[in-house]
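ok so I'm stuck.
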Amino acid sequence: MEKYPGNCFAGTRTSDKLYYRKHNPFISANNIRENPERCAKIVNADEIEADLDNGSLPQFSFYTPDMNNDGHDTSLDYAANWLQGFLEPKLARKDFMDGETLVIVTFDENDYILEDNLVWTGLIGSGVQARQSRAA
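replied:
not stuck anymore, here's the structure
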């Protein structure tokens, strides 16, 4: 979680307003928040690079950008630039895209460009076949 202050922080948001609890589904689960061992597995997003470099990325990782990088408090261009800079280097790593990795990117901000606030989700991985669809 980008800007997550750690220590099982269960407040609504940080004072800089970059981390919001509502984007961290795990801290809302009592069996995680009230269990120090499980809660310690929620970490600040800065740890992803170290985990990749030392081969200790968990089997399941859930990454949430901060309020700027997710485009909520900025723009689609800002978020797209962040995503490109964040994701492209990881996709280029053979140890990250090892044939079993599935990256799911979900984006629900639209700068009110579209009439409806559509949610976009993309899947990236060796087992994914290229296809576009739009649910009604």
